[in-house]
Write a structure and sequence with these properties.
Layout lengths: L26 E2 L12 E9 L5 E9 L2 E12 L2 E8 L10 E8 L1 E2 L2 E2 L3 E6 L21 E9 L7 E8 L2 E7 L16 H15 L8 H7 L9 H17 L4 H11 L1
Parallel strand pairs: 1-5, 2-10, 10-12
Antiparallel strand pairs: 2-5, 3-4, 3-6, 6-9, 7-8, 11-12
């Protein structure tokens, strides 16, 4: 089935936390894709979020008609089980759907987060991709595919660990860092308040006073990674904040890399 290219691309965000508790029934989510056809649904994606979690989940897809079509976009999901109906395709050159799910973290009880999990669905070229074939072609099947999300301490840096429990279930563990880089006041976001905190601390140090920042905050304030906190870090953070306010989510590391690539 073909459709018109009148869909916008959506960015994603989400958060996670601690041991897993799943609701008995998954809460069904509504697609944002205008040409969604319930009669062509051939599978369901279920995302189970743990305690004390707020998550934004986005699903997009590529097809012969174009790239990055927005399919689902849901915000501020708390602890529970959430389902997303998926239309299958036969993965032929003129009839395919390569889905991508993105779960972005905002914060966790065991530490701040500024990272996201991303996975591919119905893409045979991707290892361990959940496969949702076309309902109207061969093979004719219907399945439920589950992501069990959990958050654990014990790792120094943000990272994900994905384990394929079976062909229809993935256990996804997030190890959060104690603080988002640049998040001086530990409110789970990087903005002008953090830049102001860096400038204030740097001004104090410049006249021989204590900066007023903890060791952890000082490390978070070293935006450019040169081993010191100064006005350059504050300027870089403000540029990053201005960029993300307009262009959307990107990590500070990726932002710095983009700047270096242009210079």
């Amino acid at each position: 089935m073909k459709f018109n290219k009148t869909v916008s691309i959506i960015t994603a965000a989400a958060l996670l936390l601690s041991p897993m508790t799943v609701n008995a029934a998954a809460e069904s989510q509504k697609p944002v894709f205008p040409q969604f056809n319930k009669n062509e649904v051939n599978g369901t994606i279920v995302v189970n979020l743990p305690d004390e979690v707020i998550a934004d989940i986005d699903i997009t897809f590529d097809s012969p008609e174009g790239l990055g079509f927005s399919y689902y976009s849901v915000k501020d999901l708390a602890k529970g089980s959430y389902s997303f109906d998926i239309e299958g395709r036969d993965n032929t050159a003129d009839d395919y759907r390569y889905y991508q799910i993105k779960i972005k973290l905002k914060k966790t009880a065991v530490g701040a987060a500024n990272d996201y999990y991303m996975d591919f669905i119905n893409n045979s070229e991707r290892e361990n991709s959940f496969m949702i074939p076309d309902k109207n072609d061969n093979p004719d099947t219907f399945g439920t595919y589950t992501y069990n999300i959990s958050v654990e301490e014990g790792k120094a840096n943000n990272m994900w660990d994905t384990k394929l429990t079976d062909k229809v279930t993935k256990s996804v563990i997030f190890y959060p860092s104690p603080r988002i880089e640049g998040d001086i006041n530990s409110d789970g976001k990087v903005d002008g308040i953090d830049a102001s905190a860096i400038l204030t601390a740097y001004a104090k140090e410049s006249v021989g006073k204590e900066s007023g920042l903890t060791e952890e905050q000082t490390k978070a304030a070293d935006i450019n990674g040169d081993g010191k906190m100064d006005g350059n870090d504050a300027s870089l953070l403000l540029s990053y904040y201005a960029y993300t306010s307009v262009e959307g989510d990107i990590t500070i590391a990726d932002f710095i890399a983009k700047r270096k690539a242009k210079s």
